[in-house]
Specification:
The protein has a single domain, classed as NAD(P)-binding Rossmann-like Domain (Rossmann fold). The chain has 8 helices and 12 strands.
């Protein structure tokens, strides 16, 4: 399945590095244009190529990792999602102060899903620090745990398979609201943990 990445900050770049290490091709895009990604593209060639947000959004699986306040603009005017899988790797905080956003009691993935109508949203890759996403998932004789959640079983299966390809041990937290609440930062109990599965 083709993979796109929208957002080239810490998490987007870490995900791209993890894909490149596993030999999995992807297109990465940001708001500043492909030329701004020349250094990252050179580092991760031949697997990671810079493109436009429209090109990245056309992939079968699209990871979105953008500063919270910039999400509406980043996702505006993109092609119809048409049931494609979109990974929500975002947290409701504002860099650089890391101030929590008031969502009125809603889970951030609910808000995110409203920005990508027609997509099958899976929450993943948001609860680990970026350096853990891009580093070797084999840790202390086991595999680093990566949580995911969503409402569509087939979409979760696709993301779970990708997590396994990258060498992580995926754990399905259930539906988008339940899992999103557990893995959301700030507020959820899981983002503070770096867990390893043995056996």
């Amino acid at each position: 399945m083709s993979i796109g990445i929208i957002g080239s900050g810490n998490i987007g770049s870490a995900f791209a590095r993890a894909l490149a290490k596993a030999g999995i091709p992807a297109i990465i895009a940001n708001s500043r244009g492909p030329a701004s990604l020349a250094t990252l593209e050179a580092e991760l060639r031949p697997f990671i190529k810079a493109g436009t947000p429209e090109e990245a959004a056309s992939a079968d699986i699209v990871l979105v990792a953008v500063n919270w306040s910039k999400l509406p603009q980043a996702l505006r005017d993109l092609p119809d999602w048409n049931g494609r899988v979109v990974i929500d790797a975002n947290n409701p905080i504002e860099a650089p102060l890391f101030k929590p956003v008031d969502l009125g009691g809603r889970v951030s993935s609910e808000v995110f899903a409203g920005l990508v109508p027609g997509a099958r949203v899976v929450k993943a890759f948001n609860h680990l620090q970026a350096h853990l996403v891009s580093s070797d998932p084999a840790a202390e004789g086991g595999r680093r745990v990566l949580f995911y959640s969503g409402d569509d079983a087939a979409a979760k299966a696709d993301v779970g398979a990708l997590i396994g390809q990258l060498g992580f041990f995926g754990i399905d937290l259930g539906d988008l609201v339940t899992g999103g609440r557990l893995a959301q930062f700030p507020g959820g109990p899981l983002p503070t943990l770096n867990l390893v599965r043995f056996g």
